[in-house]
# Entry
Amino acid sequence: MTNEPTNADRAACAKDALAVFTVATFTGGHPDRMDRDDLECATGDLIADLLHYAVQQGFDAGSIMRSACGHFGFELLAEATHGITRHGCRFVPELIEALDYLLQQTIDMDLKYGITLSEGEAGHGRSGGNSRATTQR
# Structure
């Protein structure tokens, strides 16, 4: 038995954070009472505001986004392949498609900002399309 939170636990924590955010900034509405379009907009606004905060703290917002997408994909895959979610493995093709999209977005962002393979990654025969990228200094 592990104390690792499930994705449902993670989503519940995120909903709590979103509730504080929407009450303070998004017409005072609670996520449970918002229509779907407003809820989606508020979710994106919270993510954007967290990135503004990160930049003010001197963090690299792009690095945080890449890391967050990686964590998200890993956590989805971990639950799907271990049958923890109520959806089970029948959604694995959709999950793989979503992970492929996240990977492509990460690669596109890396290329946009000039991030390339590290020496170690290049030495192991990984191509730019299938590996983690790091900034060369």
